[in-house]
Write a structure and sequence with these properties.
Keywords: Oxidoreductase. GO terms for molecular function: nucleotide binding; oxidoreductase activity. InterPro entries: Gfo/Idh/MocA-like_OxRdtase_N, Gfo/Idh/MocA_oxidrdct_glycsds, GFO_IDH_MocA-like_dom, NAD(P)-bd_dom_sf. Helices cover 27% and strands 27% of the residues. The chain is globular, with a radius of gyration of 20 Å. The termini are far apart. Helix 3 runs parallel beside helix 4 and helix 8 crosses helix 10. By secondary structure, the chain is of the alpha/beta class. It has ten helices and 15 strands.
């Protein structure tokens, strides 16, 4: 029996294409979805019901799991809580909350209801980052001392000037960078700060931050830094310009230019490109496998959500020019 899945909102990376011919999950219903965004096979499926509100979606007994890309990210924590109070498991776009109080309420509600809550947090299981994570775990570069991360995206006119819509640069893009630190380099962030700027925002009096820089202390005594921005030019040729450099006591590794180029140094050996032959692991697939009892997720919820907690904390004390 495939898991009946409801889609709410399309503000983010909604999973409609993953549900087309998925072996263990199926689209049961939608709400606040542009139907033209659905694959044709799902758009024309008479078994898929379409609602106007989340409340109607939650009343559908065929929906066991809700994928949240809420129209306003500022509403998403409460949306997630309402889903779980209705007995639905939740898979949520990042950031799933905009305050630590909201994040704590999500975790608490999941614990009370027994529903499984997960954020769309699969960065570490995509190549080349999966191989880098495995190399860290194997101790190939020794103890991790310093990490540098970068997430750069293009600016376009539809970028929200109101951070309530998508969470804003430091939270919605910054969480990827902090996941690089925690889920790939596998070092928990203990302290974090961010500085932001609106310089370069073409909208006069707009609220969009164009760039942010993070500084972090790590629980093992190491340090990390990250830059995130909406300054990736069209000529780069890729949507995201990601960099990740991990420095250890016995080596160094990097993935640059959107993960296209990699390099591994271990002691006095230049091992060249990192072996990326292991297939990437789809995070939604792992989540569905957990729901039906086939496998466990790689993190406990608090560990998975800790990067989100850290960018929320940084944002709450940010300063900008």
């Amino acid at each position: 029996m495939k898991i009946g899945t409801g889609l709410y909102g399309c503000n983010g990376h909604q999973i409609q294409h993953l549900l087309e011919n998925h072996p263990r999950a199926r689209l049961a219903a939608t709400a606040c979805i542009d139907l033209s965004s659905l694959p044709v096979s799902l758009r024309n499926d008479p078994g898929v019901r379409h609602y106007a509100t989340l409340r109607e979606l939650l009343a559908d007994p065929d929906v066991r799991l809700v994928s949240l890309c809420s129209p306003l990210r500022s509403d998403q924590a409460e949306d997630a809580i309402q889903c779980m109070l209705a007995g639905k498991d939740v898979y949520a776009e990042k950031p799933c909350a905009l305050s630590e109080e909201e994040l704590d309420a999500i975790i608490r509600t999941a614990r009370i209801t027994g529903c499984r809550f997960r954020e769309m947090a699969g960065t570490a299981f995509e190549q080349p980052y999966l191989s880098m994570r495995n190399l860290v775990r194997a101790g190939v570069i020794g103890e991790v001392v310093q990490v540098f991360a970068q997430k750069s995206y293009p600016y376009f006119e539809q970028r929200p000037q109101d951070e309530r819509i998508d969470g804003g640069l430091s939270r919605q893009a910054g969480v990827h960078a902090v996941r690089f630190v925690e889920h790939v380099a596998m070092q928990k962030v203990s302290e974090i700060a961010v500085v932001e700027t609106q310089l370069g925002n073409p909208v006069s009096n707009g609220g969009l931050h164009m760039a942010a820089s993070f500084m972090m202390s790590l629980a093992n005594g190491g340090v990390a830094s990250a830059v995130v921005n909406y300054l990736n030019p069209q000529g780069f040729g890729r949507w995201g310009n990601e960099h990740l450099r991990i420095f250890g006591t016995s080596g160094f590794m990097e993935a640059t230019d959107g993960g296209v180029r990699t390099r591994l140094i271990a002691g006095d050996r230049d091992l060249g490109e990192i072996d990326r032959s292991e297939p990437s692991q789809d995070y939604f697939d792992r989540y569905v496998d957990e729901l039906i009892g086939l496998a466990a997720m790689p993190y406990e919820p608090e560990e998975e959500l800790h990067p989100t907690r850290m960018v929320i904390r940084a944002k709450s004390h940010s300063w900008f020019e």
